[in-house]
Amino acid sequence: MRILVIEDEPKIAQAVKKGLELKGYAVDMVHDSDSGLSYAMDPDYDLIVLDRMLPGKMDGVELCGELRKNNISTPVIMLTARGTIGDRVEGLNSGADDYLVKPFSFDELIARVRALLRRPPVTVGSIVKVDDLSLNPQNYEVKRGSKEVKLSKKEFSLLEYLMHHEGQVITKEMIASHIWDEEADILPNTIEVYIGYLRNKIDRPFPKKKTLIHTLRGFGYKLST
Ligand code: CA
Q1: Residue ranges of the chain with pLDDT lower than 70?
Q2: Would you tell me the crossing angle of helices 106-117 and 10-22 to the nearest 10 degrees?
Q3: Which of 10, 64, 167, 214 has the most CB atoms around it within 10 Å of its CB?
Q4: Hey, what domains does the chain have and what are their CATH numbers?
Q5: Residue 30 alpha carbon to ligand 1 centre in Å
Q6: How far is the CA of 6 from the centre of ligand 1 (A)?
């Protein structure tokens, strides 16, 4: 999952970026509302953390309103130093999905990020399931049947993305833009290599079970039963 952080205060921006990266998210960061808006218009972001008070032509509330006007529905968590009822209502009215008052605890931010990224169709509680493969984003536990599968952070992010899009064809470009941030150097075969790692952990050790990761030559990949 790829997250855009729009926050002008360098310390907070860095801390949020680092913390989210430690949880396995790909994070891009900008520091004013002008570049914030142009980045946020990119539909490849899965979530935006948006500071309310920003240098630039707009503040966070206006930026969010502008996004919604342009039919960008990426979930937005708004950060603000003020927490009055009026501010809260204004933030939510502009199309923000959630609201966090500074100073906030990082655990709370993560909990809200997770809640917004959770998508209903294939989830049981917060656990995502495809056939007998299950993935729990709370504790990073992945299981095929009852057998636990150990994944690296990148492998986990890739699998989570594929499972959220069960049955859909996912191109390498989609994977690159949702799992890696813009500064990452991705070689042409990086994604194949990671798909290979996943196969070796999810499919190959279970020859009697259904193969879940499929390659569609020239198109991309699909996770399905
Ligand atoms: Ca600010």
Answers
A1: 82-85, 119-125
A2: 60
A3: 64
A4: 2-117 (3.40.50.2300), 123-223 (1.10.10.10)
A5: 12
A6: 9
Residue 128's pLDDT is 86
Q: How far is the CA of 159 from the centre of ligand 1 (A)?
A: 34
Please spell the DSSP secondary structure of the chain, one letter per residue.
-EEEEE-S-HHHHHHHHHHHHHTT-EEEEE-SHHHHHHHHT-TT-SEEEEESS-SSSS-HHHHHHHHHHTT----EEEEES---HHHHHHHHHTT-SEEEESS--HHHHHHHHHHHH--STTEETTEEEETTEEEETTTTEEEETTEEE---HHHHHHHHHHHHTTTS-B-HHHHHHHHS-TT----TTHHHHHHHHHHHHHTTT-TTSPP-EEEETTTEEEE--
What ranges in 24-171 are assigned the alpha helix state H?
33-40, 60-69, 85-93, 106-117, 153-164
Please tell me the predicted confidence (pLDDT) of residue 84: 65
Cα 46 to averaged position of ligand 1 atoms, centre (Å): 22
Q: How far is the CA of 101 from the centre of ligand 1 (A)?
A: 12
* Single pTM value for the model: 0.66
Q: How far is the CA of 80 from the centre of ligand 1 (A)?
A: 8
Q: What is the pLDDT of residue 122?
A: 42
| β-sheet bridge partners, residue 123 | 128
Q: What are phi and psi of 57, to 5 degrees?
A: -65, -30
- State residue 92's pLDDT score: 75
